[in-house]
TrEMBL record:
Belongs to the aldo/keto reductase family. The keyword Oxidoreductase applies. This is Aldo/keto reductase. Residues 12-258 form the NADP-dependent oxidoreductase domain. Transmembrane segments: none annotated.
Length: 273
């Protein structure tokens, strides 16, 4: 089991619009018990996330804040070390924080060059600007390559994971290399509501399909979840998934689902190479 100062239940904050809503949602999330908030430079909402963090009555040191930089869509030439340091400091400034708990490399493609990006992450780690280094959307080969360069430990790897994309290989890799696997799109952006096995288990326990998907993920060792919602009722019911204990039959039934659906599947996804 990797380091345990990591709240396994977090809030994802991506949205195409209404970005200012995140101030209120993040504040509400913290009030109902969330202690891990996930954002990214590219989400263009860090200032609103920061506002929510500031307005909530929870101390900074009790909250795990993660953000991400180095995105394939960032225009211009590949960033050099100074660009990465500036990008990270920009995140902190918008969030209104003097450190973040984790900074992820968002995508290991496009402007990503491991020999430039990772030493900059090491520097941010050494100077305490970031408490942990995270990677996102890597393959096992790219994880191996990154770990050859990085001096800082990889704390977490964030990838799409849910009952329709079970990520056995990356889960095994995370377990063997002692880092967290953070499941993004843990509700398959709503697709899990159309899975009969999930619905049946939800009916059996008198809970929502969202809670079943989240509880199944949390039943796996070293897995964390970051469901997104802008709805206060969902905010509350999702976090209650931490209290749902699925039985062995439920887990076996979901583990056995072989149908696959990848929600985030751009051509540049390194798994498509
Ligand atoms: N690293 C990466 O490259 C990457 C990529 C994608 C996502 N992420 C992160 O992962 C987070 C979550 O993934 P996601 O946003 O793709 O999808 P998701 O969390 O799987 O699904 C979000 C959708 O489910 C709905 N929902 C949430 N709770 C619900 C409930 N209890 N009942 C019914 N509907 C519910 C939400 O609508 P309502 O608002 O109406 O509840 C929203 O439409 C993102 O916000 C982001 O932080 C990271």
């Amino acid at each position: 089991m990797p380091a345990n100062d990591f709240p396994q239940f977090g809030l994802g904050t991506y949205s195409d619009d209404n970005k200012d809503y995140w101030a209120g949602i993040v504040e509400s999330a913290l009030e109902v018990g969330y202690r891990h908030i996930d954002t990214a430079q590219i989400y263009d909402n860090e200032e609103y996330v920061g506002e929510g963090l500031k307005n909530a009555s929870v101390s900074r040191e009790d909250i795990f804040v993660s953000t991400k930089t180095v995105h394939v869509d960032v225009p211009g030439p590949s960033p050099d070390t100074e660009d990465i340091l500036a990008a990270a400091n920009g995140c902190l400034e918008r969030l209104g924080l003097d450190y973040v708990d984790m900074l992820y490399v968002h995508w290991p493609v496009g402007v990503y060059d491991h020999e430039t990006v990772l030493p900059a992450y090491d520097r941010l780690y050494e100077e305490g600007t970031i408490r942990h280094v995270g990677l996102s959307n890597f393959t096992p080969e790219l994880l191996d390559e990154a770990q050859e360069i990085l001096s800082a430990p990889v704390f977490a790897h964030q990838v799409e994971m849910h009952p329709l994309l079970q990520q056995e290989e990356l889960h095994r890799y995370a377990y063997e290399h002692d880092h967290w696997l953070v499941a993004y799109s843990p509700l398959a952006q709503g697709e899990i509501f159309n899975v009969p096995e999930i619905q049946e288990i939800a009916d059996k326990h008198g809970v929502s399909p969202a809670q079943v998907s989240l509880a199944w993920l949390l039943s796996k060792e070293n897995v964390a979840v970051i469901p997104r919602t802008m709805n206060e009722d969902h905010l509350q019911s999702n976090v209650e998934a931490q209290d749902l204990e699925l039985d062995a039959d439920d887990i076996t039934t979901i583990d056995a689902i072989e149908r696959e659906k990848r929600c985030i599947d751009p051509d540049h996804g390194p798994w498509n190479k």
